[in-house]
Design goal:
It comes from Allokutzneria albata (Kibdelosporangium albatum). By secondary structure, the chain is α+β, with helices and mostly antiparallel strands. The protein contains 12 helices and 16 strands. It folds into 3 domains: 108 residues, Translation, Eukaryotic Peptide Chain Release Factor Subunit 1, Chain A (2-Layer Sandwich), CATH 3.30.960; 133 residues, eRF1 domain 2 (Nucleotidyltransferase, domain 5, 2-Layer Sandwich); 94 residues, 60s Ribosomal Protein L30, Chain: A.
Length: 365
Amino acid sequence: MDLTQLRGLVAATGPFASVYLDDSHDTPDAPKALELRWREARATLAEQGADERTLSSVDRALAGGEPARGRAGRALIASGGEVLLDRHLPEPPAQPIARWSALPYLMPLLEQTEADLPHVAVLVDGAGGEVLGYDGDGRLVDRQEVAGQDHPLHDAGGGGMAHKRIRQRVENTKQDNAIAVAEAADRMVRRLGARLLVLSGEVQARTAVRAALPDRSAAIAEELTVGGHVPGADQDALGEAVHKLIKQQVDAIGHNAVDRFRIELGRQGDATQGLPAVATALREGRVDTVLLDGAATADRTIWIGSEPTQIAIDEAELRSLGVPHLARERADSALVMAAVATGARLQLATGEPELADGVGALLRG
C-alpha cells in the first residue's frame, strides 16, 4: 500500500483528533443520527483534552461534507483547528472511535482502504484517443486528448493502383495516429510512475498502439475488450474491468511482499522482524515495506519523540540519541507514521505467523 496520500499528516503538529463514525444515509433520520454520534464523540474528545478550535473544525466538516450513499463510515483526522483528512469509508466502524493522541490513529482507515495503483487508461480508435492518468488513490490527475490525422481513415474501395495508394495512405494515417497515442501514453506512464497501462477501444487501433509502445510501457500494458473511444461504449463496464485488473495486481503485490519477506528472513537477507528491529530500521530510513498485523500490534506501545522517525522500544535508546521530549504511543500508529515519513510502503498481513510482535520489514537494498 502506497502511503503517499498521508504525507500531509507528517508536517502537522499534534496532538490529533482521530474520529471514526457511522455515516450511513440509509434511513430518513440519518442526519440526526450522525449528529448524535458526533455529539457523543465530541464530548469524549473534549474529556481527553481536545481543544475547541479542533473540535469546531470537525463540526464544520461534518455539517458541510458530501453525504454518503447507503451504509458508510467516515474517518476524520484533525489538529490545530484544521481537518487534515476527511474520508468516506466503505463500511461503518463497529463502534465509534474518538481518540486524542500525539499521533493520528490510522489503522481503522488503512484497514478499509482499498489499495489502488497509479495507472494510465487509453481509449483509442483509428483517429486518435484519450489518455487518462490516475494516481495511487484512484483520482484522475491528468487527461490528454490525442487528435490524430483524420484523413484519410477509410478505404473507399475499388481497385487498381490508385486504390492501392489510398489504402496504403489509410494504413499510414492509422499507424501515425497509433504512434502519437502510444507516445502520449508512455509520457504519462513515466510522469505518474504508473504500474499499469490499460488499452481499450477498436481492436486494430489498440493493437497498433501496443506495438508502438516503448518496452517499459509495453511490459505493463493490458488490453480490454470493453469500453473505448467511440459513442455508445460501455464506460461502466470499462471501469469495472479496470478495477478488477488493479485488484489482481494489488493482491499479487501483497502476496509477493509476504513471500519475499519469508525468503529474505530465511536466508537472513534484506528483512527483519519484531518491534525493536523494525523500529530501528524505520528510524534509520532503511525500510522499503512494513508488514503489519493490526490485531497483533493493537495492544503494543512504543516510545516516540517529536519527529515521526524518532521511535524506539527502549526509552533510554531515544534519550541516548538526544531526543528530549518523549511520549508513549500505540505501536501501530508510530510505525505507520514513520513509514509515511520515510516513504516506505505498508502491507497489512493479518494472521501472518512469521511476524514477531506482529510486525516485519523488507529492507532497502
